[in-house]
User: Which sequence fits this backbone?
DNA sequence: CGCCGAGTTGAACTGAATCAAGAAACGTGG
DNA sequence: CCACGTTTCTTGATTCAGTTCAACTCGGCG
C-alpha cells in the first residue's frame, strides 16, 4: 500500500485513522501477461491502482478488429470507470499487456469509505479528476491534431510505450489503421 | 440555491450543517447573450452551476475559424475544469449563447470546503465524475462513429440544441466543416 | 433597398480506409 | 536450435469521406 500512500501524500493530507479505514480494504491481485482483467458484458466492480504493468482497454468490432482507446501504466489509478460509476455492464474488454500487479478496492467498499471518511471522497475526486484531464487532452488532440501529430505526441509523452506495444494497438489508439500508421512511420523516419 | 440542493439530493446525503457551510459560498451572476464568461489566457477561478442558459467552449484557430468542443445547459455543472484543476491559463474561450444565470463558487472557497466537509468532496467528486462520463462518451463517439452518425446522435440526445445553435457550431462540435454538415443534412432529409 | 453573415451547392483535392499481396518477426514443437 | 506456421508489419492500388476554395442563395436588419 505504500505506493498508493506516497501517491496520495503528494496532494492530499489525511489522518492516520482515515488512512487505516481506507487502506484496510484494498487487496493485491496479480495477472499474467495477455490476460483479461475485465470482460465486456461484466460490470466493473473495482477501482484499481497499478503497482506494476501495462493495461489496455479495447472494444471488439464487428469486423474482428479491435478498437484500443486506453493504455494505463504503473502508478496510475485504473478502472472501467464509466461502468463502475454507473454500475452497468462494461461495453469493452480490459486486458494486461505485460505481467501486472494491481491493488483493488471494490465498489461496495468504496461506497462505505465515501460515507465514512473525507479521505475516501478525496481519493474518488482525485481519481475522477485525473481521468477527466486525460480524456480532455485526448478529446482536443482528436479534434485539432492530424494522425501524424497524434503519433508524434505519443512518441514524446510515452516513449516507452513504443517499445512495448504492438503497432496495431497504437494505430487504433490514435484513431487510424495499422497501414496508415506504418506509412506515417515511414514518412517521418 | 434550491436548484443545486435538489440536484445534489438526488444522489448524495448530507447534514444541514454541511449544507450551510457549503451553500453560503456560492454567488449568483448573470451574463447577457453572446458574452464571455472566461477568455483564453485567464485561469478559471470558478466552478459554476447553470441555473439558466446555454454555454459554449471554443478554441480560436489560426485561420480565423473556431473549434467548438463543449455545449453546457441548464442544470449542469460547468467550468473550464482542466484550467480550474491545474490552475493554469485556460487555452479556450467560454461564452454564453443565450442569456445565462450562473451560481459560482471560487477555487479558494472550494478548497476550503474540501478540507472542511465531506459534502464538498462529494460535490467535487460528482462534478468530476459527470464531466468524465461526458468526455468518455464523446471520445468513443469520435473513434467509432462516422460524422453522420455523430450528428444523428446529437439530434437524438439534444434535440433542443438544433433549434438554438447555429449550424457552424454544431459542425465544429462533431468535428467537421459547416459544408460537410450541410451535405449530411441534405442526405438524411 | 442594399448589405452582410449564415447556409448551400459545386468541383477539385487529400488523408486515410479498404482490399490485396508480400516480407518480416515471433513462438512453438520437434 | 532450427523449421514451420502464424501473426504482425509493410507496400501498392483503388476508393471514399470530408476538406478546401469559390460562387451563389436566403433571411434579417440598418
Assistant:
Amino acid at each position: 500500500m505504500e505506493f498508493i500512500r506516497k501517491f496520495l501524500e503528494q496532494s492530499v493530507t489525511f489522518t492516520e485513522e482515515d488512512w487505516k479505514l481506507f487502506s484496510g480494504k484494498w487487496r493485491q491481485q496479480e495477472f499474467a501477461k495477455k490476460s483479461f482483467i475485465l470482460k465486456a458484458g461484466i460490470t466493473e466492480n473495482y477501482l484499481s491502482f497499478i503497482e506494476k504493468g501495462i493495461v489496455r482497454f479495447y472494444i471488439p468490432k464487428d469486423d474482428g478488429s479491435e478498437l484500443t482507446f486506453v493504455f494505463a501504466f504503473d502508478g496510475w489509478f485504473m478502472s472501467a470507470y464509466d461502468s463502475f460509476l454507473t454500475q452497468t455492464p462494461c461495453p469493452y474488454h480490459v486486458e494486461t499487456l505485460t505481467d501486472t500487479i494491481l491493488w483493488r478496492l471494490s465498489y461496495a467498499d468504496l461506497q462505505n469509505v465515501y460515507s465514512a471518511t473525507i479521505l475516501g471522497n478525496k481519493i474518488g475526486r482525485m481519481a475522477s479528476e485525473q481521468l477527466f484531464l486525460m480524456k480532455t487532452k485526448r478529446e482536443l488532440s482528436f479534434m485539432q491534431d492530424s494522425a501524424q501529430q497524434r503519433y508524434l505526441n505519443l512518441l514524446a509523452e510515452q516513449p516507452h510505450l513504443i517499445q512495448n506495444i504492438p503497432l496495431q494497438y497504437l494505430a487504433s489508439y490514435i484513431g487510424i489503421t495499422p497501414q496508415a500508421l506504418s506509412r506515417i512511420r515511414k514518412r517521418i523516419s
About this structure: The mean pLDDT of chain A is 90.
